[in-house]
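Structure first, sequence second, as always.
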């Protein structure tokens, strides 16, 4: 059986929905290797996965055949979000995002932005949330210059990792339940 032009019994198919290295990703879905598959790329921290993330990823996936999610490594998240982040370690965040039905590949990156990865991959579609202005989207020029397009996806109102963490931090400390000790 074929899916995306790949034999489902082949080792390549078993990589789908998995965390892969940048080298593996390029070998699997670079412009030279993707065939007729339309590759969509998006990225983020995905520290506490919430319905806003899920809906954005589903929207991104609807724009092509393969969804690649670039995930900031822990050090990159700390630089962008502060010392209290991430809450969830990179390997666990990667595992969670890779388990989502919409996601085909998750690839970790250490740099402050995924610019170098985007230049190597040259996705057909680059997706970012509407909170990023057109001139702020890293990789826009390269993707559009290669004939791809950039799509800004509206954010889901009421969902934000930062607001979830604020709510959690405001919770009163409850006494420990004796059965848990």
């Amino acid at each position: 059986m074929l899916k995306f032009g790949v034999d489902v019994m082949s080792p390549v198919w078993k990589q789908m929905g998995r965390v892969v290295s940048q080298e593996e990703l390029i070998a699997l879905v670079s412009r030279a290797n993707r065939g007729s598959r339309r590759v969509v790329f998006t990225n983020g921290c995905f520290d506490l996965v919430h319905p806003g993330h899920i809906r954005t990823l589903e929207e991104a996936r609807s724009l092509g055949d393969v969804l690649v999610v670039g995930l900031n490594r822990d050090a990159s998240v700390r630089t962008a979000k502060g010392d209290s982040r991430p809450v969830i370690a990179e390997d666990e965040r990667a595992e969670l995002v890779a388990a989502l039905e919409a996601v085909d590949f998750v690839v970790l990156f250490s740099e402050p932005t995924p610019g170098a990865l985007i230049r190597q991959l040259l996705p057909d579609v680059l997706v970012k949330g509407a909170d990023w202005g057109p001139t702020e989207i890293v990789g826009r020029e390269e993707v559009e210059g290669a004939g791809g397009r950039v799509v800004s996806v509206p954010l889901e109102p009421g969902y934000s990792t930062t607001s979830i963490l604020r709510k959690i931090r405001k919770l009163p400390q409850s006494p420990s339940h004796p059965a848990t000790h």
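Margin note: The first strand starts at residue 2 and ends at 3.
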